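Hi team,

Filling in the usual template for the complex we talked about on Friday. All components are listed, including any nucleic acid strands or ligand strings, so the model treats them as one assembly.

SUBMITTER: L.P.
PURPOSE: interface mapping
COMPONENTS: two
RESIDUES: 602
SEQUENCES:
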Amino acid sequence: MTLLALEHVDKVFGGLRALRGVSFEVAPKSIFGLIGPNGAGKTTLFNVVTGVYRPDGGHVRFDGAEIGGLPPARVAGLGVARTFQNIRVFRSMTVLENVMVAGHKLHRSGVLSAIVRNTAHANDEGALSVRARELLEILGLQGQAGDIAGSLPYGSQRRLEIARALMLAPKVLLLDEPAAGMNSTEARELERQIRFLRDELGVTVVLVEHNMSLVMSVCERIHVVDHGETIAEGTPAEIREHPRVLAAYLGEEPSAGRTEREA
Amino acid sequence: MDIATQKPRWLLRLVLSAGVLAALYAANLGVQAGFIEYVQRIILIAGINVILAVGLNLINGTTGQFSIGHAGFMAVGAYAAAFTGVKLAPHVTALLGAGTLADGVTFNLALLVGALLAAGAGVLVGLPSLRLKGDYLAIVTLGFGEIIRILFNNAQFLGAATGYFGDSPAGLPTYTSFFWVFFWVIVIVVVVRNVTFSQTGRSLIAIREDEIAAEAMAIPTTRLKVLAFTLSAATAGIAGGLFAHMQSGIRPEDFKFDKSIDMIVMIIVGGLGSISGAALGGVFVAVTLELMRDLQQYRLVLYALLLIVIMLVRPEGLLGTREISLAALRRRFRQPERP
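RESULT (copied from the run log):
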């Protein structure tokens, strides 16, 4: 049972091999962590999965179908939503509009309906707004619905990106460093929200994050990459003690990989 | 919010439209009686500018693409409407008898043909070029505008460089009146407003704000850009048709590159991304250019200076991205009551 599977994915930028044969499988309704030092290729992996980059080798399968190389809008339409490491909210739009804009599936009436402002248009707008407010409430942003998105603090903008991605009714949600810029209270709240997404909305979550306490407590499986290569995969407990992971994060001691230190 | 008032809405709309038409008709009579022809002409030009600016703003303001070939679409509309009007008039008169009705029918059919062909040109240019961004798109649209002008310059059946004056020695019929210009201003402003404040409009703004994020939200960016381009071209086509029937003929040099620049000036002065700003900019350009006519050769110098001053003092344009609307006015008047 896998929802998202990468098979020997390669990505090359000029002389740099950003990804070298990375493979992993994400089970449905799981919370899957993807970690590694800076520059390991985590965001590149997200970009390959979501169609921003075309893989130079290997396969990306979602729900059994190949999605490697499809354009981003197609991949998103199939049910793979994402957030961005460098926040990309639509800054001049309100918080509510930011979420509504991702809700094409709820908006069947076209531009002609909008021009004549018929009942179908009014109903669609109503449905969009209701759903968007529900999602804002899940992320704790209901009080900011009318605010301009660019004026929100970073933590709130990250949660807004999650709400917006959820508007696509995705099967998989890829979160790229959602806790960056959040304080520890906000990060704990985020952890609760991520669990809620999986438990209540049935969304599979793939999480790239540097906040190790968040990753270790929320993820069921963790995949570790370094220099574009897989170095380990396992449960949080296994990863915590994996010698190659420790070496990648803390540096290798020439004598042996035996370290009791922990991040 | 409107859901509760759905049933009587069509009735309300009918009454509202009838009221607007009556008011337009009365204003038409007033303008014709109250102003000399010179002032009337400025008012018509202002109206046509409003259409051009509001249409172009859909591409350059709302969607954030930089198009500088809009005079090309206007030219397509102008020539198509003029030609259609000339060929259609005898048939319509034969059917309805000569008079205001026949003129109105001929004129509006001609305008619609102009809009349709301009929209077609919009698709033709939009499909290949909207994969380009920024400067590259600007260059393609600029090239398109010039190509259109040169095509008309060489089209013998449209009078080539001399211009198109129809089949009769009197030139093109002057159908364009205050009534029809502002009828189309209202139609186009309402259509553009309704598109802008809808899921389509939100998607267009999303493309402007962050195209990568828009794509990641499954927004069909290319299709929407072509849609904005097509709609915008159609409005320019209407403006072209209205322009063509204001005088006895149209010449290719009426649609030169500086015409496109004028339109860019209108939307930048008014405030990129604001419909009311674009309308204001359209009127502003028409009026200031006329007011400065006495300055003769210094006119364009002063005009450029004025633009520089506006850009220094209000770089976001007169209105920025704000809109003038009843709701906004109400909010403004209520504000002092709040503690």
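MY TAKE: Chain B touches chain A through 28 residues (CB under 8 Å). The longest helix of chain B spans residues 100-129.

Thanks, L.
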